């Protein structure tokens, strides 16, 4: 399935190219229970047509009804849903049934050349070119872009409260080197977290027993697939087989990519021996070795394949969100 943010920007770009104004909505913050995380996008046009989501449906209905009634003509609007003051004139007419609070940024984009260029750059970022930050200035609604690492919270505000910073970039990708029971559990968890998951294994007998819906399986050595240019800055690479013929080669290629997370399964003793092999046979220097998390994952005391997979994915999400281990 196509990354939802990509669908939103592609539709916004199509409407703008057709000369229609576009309302681009972003979830700024959530408090309490909320089905969509900060940074989630929705694009709409004046007749209520829309792509994307802000909540489970109640927020969208209220926003689109108000849009059709002629609201949100300013370049920038901020709305809060669910704070218990919904009867005040001009405020949203619904409360969230989950009891949460949702802050939404609404940008009215005029279909001019500047908007087209802006949306085209966002589209390129989502297609894997490079992660970006959208800076939205609250006074006047000016928008500009800057390059980014792709790691950290999806929405931030500057210290003075003058602008919002919204991260945008390629869909998170997980490349799993080799099939094992841990690989299967890891792929399953990653799909639930919204990752694009690709599993690589040249062994036909291993692929025959692998079945996780929505996961792409490549019948090649993981190192070959990684070397083909499969990694962008939102990619995590994990090796989970205990087979050095698969795992070591994958690590040698992964450190040459911009992947934000690289890790390989094994005990402390196995990891020490692997590091020595990668120095001696793989030619990796200390800088490259420091990029590889070995042993992989958080130290949760994991024993079963599912527990190990949980530790791996938890560590990947930790790094993706820019959280240091000592902040957990």
Automatic annotation (TrEMBL):
Gene3D superfamilies reported for this sequence: NAD(P)-binding Rossmann-like Domain (3.40.50.720)
Pfam families linked to this entry: XdhC_C, XdhC_CoxI
All residue ranges annotated as the XdhC Rossmann domain in the record: 174-316
Domain XdhC- CoxI: 15-69
InterPro entries: MoCofactor_Util/Proc, XdhC_CoxI, XdhC_Rossmann_dom
Protein origin, superkingdom: Bacteria
Protein name according to UniProt: Xanthine dehydrogenase accessory factor
Lineage, opening ranks: Bacteria, Pseudomonadati, Pseudomonadota, Gammaproteobacteria, Oceanospirillales
